[in-house]
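Thread title: Can someone regenerate the structure for this chain?

I was given the following input by a collaborator and told the matching structure tokens would be attached. They weren't. Posting the sequence so someone can regenerate them.
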Amino acid sequence: MYTLGINATFHDSSACLVKDGKLLAAAEEERFTHFKHGKRPIPFSTYELPFHAIDYCLKIAGIHLNDVDHFAYAFDPYMIIPDALKGNASIGIPFDAKPSDSSNLWTSPWDPLFLSSILHAPAQLVDGYPHHLQKRFYNSYIPKEKWHWVNHHLSHAASAFHASPYTNAAVMTLDGRGELATTSYYTGSGNDLTLLDQVMMPHSLGLLYEHITTHLGFLHSSDEYKVMALASYGKPEFVKEFRSIIHLENSGRYTIDQIDLSQLFGPMRLRGDEFTSRHFNIAHSLQYVLQETVLELSQWLYDKTQEANLCMAGGVALNCVLNAYLRDKGAFKNIWVQPAAGDAGTALGAALWVDAKQRHDHTRSFEMEHAYWGPGYDDDEIEKFLQWSKIPYRKLNAVAEEAAALLAEDKIIGWYQGRMEFGPRALGSRSILASPIQASMQARLNEVKDREDFRPVAPVVLEEDAAEWFENAGYSPFMLFVYDVKADKAARIPAVRHVDGTARIQTINQTQHPLYYDLLKAFKRITGVPVLINTSFNTLGKPIVCTPRDAIECFWTSPFDALVIGSFLLEKKPASGIATIEKEETLLMTDAG
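Best answer:
Regenerated them for you:
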């Protein structure tokens, strides 16, 4: 039985395909369209479906849309249609709406447009596809009984629990918002989830973090991770202010006062303005209070469930500093976070949930041990493109060893191998890699990627060596927790040690990605260091590369040194190019004289 999961309501549009309880493919739409996050989360964009990601999933299985048995859409519009309008054939959409125009039935005057586009998703799927994707969509039909609206937070929860290594766990979902909920608590057993309680709009830790992201001059629903990085440079100057607006109850619930951020924290920073200590301190105080608040929520959940394991999802669960705080300070013995914990992962959760329910399966047959569920290209496909585009390259006889030698020479390389990662982190398939041994490499990489100076770079480390280099480090394959760099190792890997002494590590073993593992082993043989810098293969504002064309275009338009793509090496020779230009200029001056 094939179940297609779809996330398209807010942002990070995505699709995944599950067959009889096991994941076959998963990808975000942004990787195909080159538009970061797929689209902006506005009412006018709800009609946009992840056609390219869906097409990819169907291609992996070799099926047509008509071969899909069930469709799982990670949002239930009927939860927010007012009772007075349920069953109506039509709703009104204003030509010129203002927030004050909203009636008592709607939160926003644009809600009818928002919901109408979602409700028409089945029809849009069968006849709104791009023409070049016609093969897998043409002449399709979706019977009503095949389509399932799945609660947004339930989709998040299932994406964490159903893909986790645990058969019993507490589950916590924290994000901006779903239909109405912003925080949800569940217990999971087998393939079942039981809702314990929820916090509802407008009270949302995720939306508070988004609002501060905007106030600090970043793009909300996109740049929250930058605020997390910025926080390490600040002091808890505004902790009292944040505590005064978040009101915790003893039931896992909380309320947040609606406030004027400019009145509380001063004027909003505009994009491009310099950062001041005030900005650092706002970010630090927000992160500080978020951590202590979620710790209290997790304690309530532990007391309620007495489970040893906690699964987390929702956009807030991508905050690796928070996750580490819960790991170190919280009551749960084990914490597992799904690598696409944001909205992209709801496609996975919705599909796994519907699949289990339709097959009446109470046992688990899938565990997400890696994130490599996207498109991959073999050497024949890569070389065909290299030859067609007339790009100079050479075939490597020992990919890991030769790439490690380049890295040991302080070269920055693009690393394009195997199937693409699902989720926001590059984990060794679509990565830019470099040596962590020189402290200057962090600044070099930020310059290469055109990123802000305060942004840290993260390390990948051999799983068996992780505890020797990072405090209490163990299995951590998804870069979703930070660890302190060990004091006796800090001077050897200064480029990956953040200003607060931590690093957001990825551990790698041979089963997860053999070639990536071999590269780390080879680098260790040369340098004695089992650690590399791993950052995403993209530049500022662009999604991670997907196809060989994407990788080569990014490589040739960015100042890094080499690209290892499949078994092939592309290198730049800047010194000879400069010499040629200088020689030509000299000849021109001579001719002019």
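The chain has a mean pLDDT of 92.
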